[in-house]
Amino acid sequence: MNTRLKNFTLVFIAFFSLQLVAQSDYKVEDHYTKQEVDIEMRDGIKLHTTIYSPKDTSQEYPIIMQRTPYSSRPYGEGEFRSKIGPNEFLMKEGNIIVYQDVRGRWMSEGDYDNMRPFIPNKKGKEIDEASDTYDTIEWLINNVENNNGNVGTWGISYPGFYTSYSLLSGHPALKAASPQASISDFFFDDFHHNGAYLLSYFMATALFGNQTEAPTTESWYTFPKLPSKDQYQFFLDHTPINQLDEYYPDNFFWDQLSDHPNYDKFWQDRGLIQHLKNEKIKTAVMYVGGFFDAEDLYGPFQSYKAIEENSNNYNTIVYGPWSHGDWARTSKRQAVGNVYFGDDLSENYQKDVETVFFNYFLKEEGKPKNSPLPEAMMFDTGSHEWASFEAWPPKATKKKTYYLGENQQLKSLPNKAFENKFVSDPKKPVPYSEDIKIVFTPRKYMTDDQRFAARRPDVLVFETEVLSEDITMAGEIEAKLNVATTGTDADWVVKVVDVYPADAEDTEEVQDHLKMSNYHMMVRSEVLPARFRNGFEKAEASVQNQKTDIDFTLQGIYHTFKKGHKIQIQVQSTWFPLINLNPQTFVPNIFNAEKSDYKKQTHTVFGDSSIEFTVLEK
Asked: What is the pLDDT of residues 35-50, one digit of tens each?
């Protein structure tokens, strides 16, 4: 592996594992001993596990564990991480911290299976990630000295998936779990949004689609070398999408993506939410997410909801003004892109929420009814302040419906006769951002200024008058479009935008070419391919020029549109190269589309189309 690629690999892994750099005056090796063991699972496969135990043995400690596909490095008895555990507070006060390579990754044996399906009624030596978690916990509590018999799990992103999965293990020692930015279903998280393939995840395929030949401390995968840093032009030149096959000739996950364009049994088996609904969860759970997480916004919301509907355990949710994993960092100023939200938000969360959660259930024998944390903690991304709720979404709300009316206005009443038309050209798709460089899953676009899009003829814009009072939206947003197209397929993208007033002040985060004056902050956005309008299991062509319902949910928000601002809705049909181009000619599998399928079409949005918000009552 060349030096440049190796460095990129290390950065990539660090990005996923989201390890913090501890303060320089604290050295883990001065306070912890390190042990590396291979724990045998019920089928004989051994999983490499690293255990950090406090040197102070005058008391017993809980075990806090992370299972990860991104390596439990550094390997070697004398090699220590600079930071261990969910945060430095839990590290410094003393806990037994455990990292484990999941099967088929790095130093663990076995075969790797992306989002390995859960087996509800396992027999004999049948395994899944729940059984691996159970077997690991059982070994730890019986073999690690000075443990108090209580175990917690945590992880961000893919490790968050394994944390959610741990809830299905049923081990009685598992008392607390905090899945954070947790993947729940690859058809709705990360690689797809409502079945639309995300080109922004193209580079990550290298990581997920190659098997190791044997346990290893070195990277076994390579990232494709692309001929251009201009992501818009690169992916446009590689349309149709099967032109990207050359970059992954032997990648099993790329083949799976290509072979399963619909929500078939392959994807359904790998979804976790249905099992969280069906299994009675007893472990205390705290889901954590970021309102501007470009990767895993869906998972924490929907997983929390599934458990809440079925189980009687302690189940809480925290969402802050964060992009992917920001809450695990130590930045003084919290910002996403150009938008600044406040100081010390992540550190305060780590100290006052995350640490409190684990200590209460792992050290204090906490009971749910006495928990010091609220049911839901949400950061208002418009007024920039925290709020607590007894339920999420809040109960004290009312519905507020805006119709997409004439004169680019959001109306209180529908006009079925009104037609708003635009031409969508696959050769000139609407960018998702003004940035051009190729990056792995861009983050800042989640709050990016949308003026560049609002000024395009293929983006419809609807907005309110200047608000005379604050309006706080809390919960999911429902897009209920009535549309038609001259083609037989289309993607439908809805964006909710907060339009700032002319006198809005700049902060140090604002890009040089921008001003916050009249800034169009994207608050929420989502896409639904028309092919999935009647369900994700089967793709269906649109009927040309026929008025059609396109209904879908935009994930939850907690945002105050302040007095002097405006609420804006943008509707478009391309969002490139965040998502793959829709040919606008129906083909059963877009991965098999040909160049001749990509055609310019005229789309119509009717005046009885609406966006439905949940408004917090005062």
From this structure: 999 999 999 999 999 9
